[in-house]
Amino acid sequence: MNTHRRRQLAVLGLALLGASAASAQSFPDRPITFVVPFAAASATDQIARALGQAVSEATGQPVVIENKPGANSFIGAQAVARAKNDGYTVLITTNTTHAANEHLFKKLPYDPVKDFEPVTLLGKGGQIMVVPPSLPVNNVKEFIALAKAQAGKLSFGYGSSSSRVAGELFKQSTGTEIVSVPYRSNPMGVTDLLGGQIQVMWTDMTTGLPQAKSGNLKALGVTTSTRSPLAPDVPTIAESGVPGYESTYWFAAYVPAGTSDAIVNRLNQLLVTAARTPTAAKFYGPTGTELVTSTPDELRRFQAAESQKWAQIIAKAGIQKE
């Protein structure tokens, strides 16, 4: 290649970089869509709405929340993987789609690594074990005794991989036989729990704690290694007779693969800033969600480590790939 051609390519490259940077500076100049692979009122839906409002306030552009629950969160993740890679379609999701599903299912309709560009972590949280008031138990030990006395007769609902794994890990750790019942999202499972169709759930604090505080459900334990400041009287499952038990989850944002670095970095800036606003604090504080953000590269490395961790947790829980 001659010197003149090299200069032409260098100028072209600089022009493209300049155009990309200019595009990122003006981003967004139209509405952004946050896709949530879970139902309305779920924890992921609530964090998406809080952050969406904060981003909208900062940019003057609307943020549309689009719930696409079902099929083990495949529908929402696949929709974003197939979307145009211009930064205007963002997946607000959890470890379900990007660390757990690949170890729960033989085939996914999306690749959690190749089909996405990581943007930022958004938070970490724990779950709460809840039962209806009619169930004759008041703590984890009594529940274990009942589950063993009625082997195979009790059922637990789950609306996410995090919820499912928490339940399966409990079964494996306690030697109990509890039938699992899938739902499109955790709030739907809680509805049946309130109605007595199922007997227990391990669900996110956002969904389960308000029902426990109102007396509609009984809280038996939390899945974190320490008690939640939101419910200091509720013991950890580990301290209640299941030593070593722990199950947590995380939130993160992704965009379709091929989205330019400039747009990814601009979205990172918008979301990291949004997470620290008073608007977003209305979600983080009341739900006990730990505010954790990251760079895109930090999320990429975190996701890889979490995938390995979830593979080990799922194997320990004795779950076979479907």
TrEMBL record:
Record-annotated membrane-spanning stretches: none
Keyword Signal: yes
One Pfam family named in its UniProt record: TctC
Recorded superkingdom: Bacteria
Keyword check for Transmembrane helix: no
Signal peptide positions (record): 1-24
Keywords: Signal
Similarity-based family: Belongs to the UPF0065 (bug) family.
Protein name stated in the entry: Tripartite tricarboxylate transporter substrate binding protein
